[in-house]
Amino acid sequence: MKPSPSFNRASLGRVALGLAIGLVGGCLFAWIRTPLPWIIGPIICCGFATFLGLPLKASSEGRIVGMLVLGVALGLYFTPEAAIAVLAHLPVIIAASGTTLVVGAAASFLLARTARIDHVTAFFCSVPGGVAEMSMVGERFGGRPMPIAVTQLLRVVSVTILIPTTLTLLGAGGSSTSALGALPFSPTGLAVSLCLAFAFSALLARFRFRNAWLLGPMAVGCVLGLSEAGLSSVPPWLTAVGQVLMGAHIGAQFDRALITSMWRFIPAALINLGVLMAGCAGVGVLVAYVSGISPGNMVLATSPGGVTEMCITAKVLHLDVPIVVAFHIVRIFLVILSAPYLFRLLRATGVMPMPPTHAAARLPAE
């Protein structure tokens, strides 16, 4: 049955309200000169409006458009010179990404104790993966999807707000420049780039590739950057629009009923998040000392935040975007692919106990 026109109008109105509040939030935070105003402003303002009960709705289509724009913009930083630098640090990237997964697994034991939840749920709450991915995988192993989704969402929002602000206050910005500044803006070239990104992402999504709408545009941007095709740069106003679309989507997901029903769990989740962030920052500082990469780059590269938000932060702070992109993309693949196997290993060795309520649950075959 097709939805009624009134339903469509109501749904579009809720989406439009969220985008309007997100745009106002972006303008406000840009006016007061906060870090990443066009994504932090919409997250905070839309999240607060949702908590107050305003009928906002997250737009998946808007989020996809935002990821297309931002993915291409970030991928264009992969010039041939940048690719050489990334390959030179590839062993460090793999090692650091694996270490952040271990940090998340270790933090899960604290969450299980402080929140009094089972270890399955705590594990998939703590490893820094995607909201949807960790919820689905955790549920297959017998975990509870609601705490997992809330914790993962809190992680993305908190890291997006705290990491850029902290790095800015500490003066951790770099002096990295890019050849993109010399690349002219061409409406036709940009349209071609975005169409290629959409087509490739849709193909990946058709074959159920994880994070297709995030990694697809980045891959297209990387190819264009490496080939030095020179189609077009992505203008700053368009990247701001993309950030507003993504920030409004994140903020609108803070459903008031969901948050209030879990008010006892959230303080423990925030403590767990603090431990996770501190552990990942420690890994970043250690890797910076060993590898010679600047601490600002490494703290951002190993932070348990979303890849798009952290890469935007690197761009704003003039840090090495290709390095940050590479670290986070490797982490995404490593966490999504390896988390179930790490969980099985911890369960098989007896480190991760089986809770009584899930004792009879059978692990899924993959």
TrEMBL record:
GO CC aspect terms: membrane
Residues that span the membrane, as ranges: 12-32, 38-56, 68-87, 93-112, 153-173, 185-205, 266-290, 323-343
Family matches, as Pfam families: AbrB
GO biological process: regulation of gene expression
Source species, domain of life: Bacteria
Keyword entries, A-Z: Membrane, Monooxygenase, Oxidoreductase, Transmembrane, Transmembrane helix
Molecular function GO terms recorded: monooxygenase activity
InterPro entries associated with the record: AbrB_dup (IPR017516), AbrB_fam (IPR007820)
UniProt cross-references to PANTHER family, sorted A to Z: REGULATOR ABRB-RELATED
Protein name: Putative ammonia monooxygenase
Organism, as annotated: Azorhizobium caulinodans (strain ATCC 43989 / DSM 5975 / JCM 20966 / LMG 6465 / NBRC 14845 / NCIMB 13405 / ORS 571)
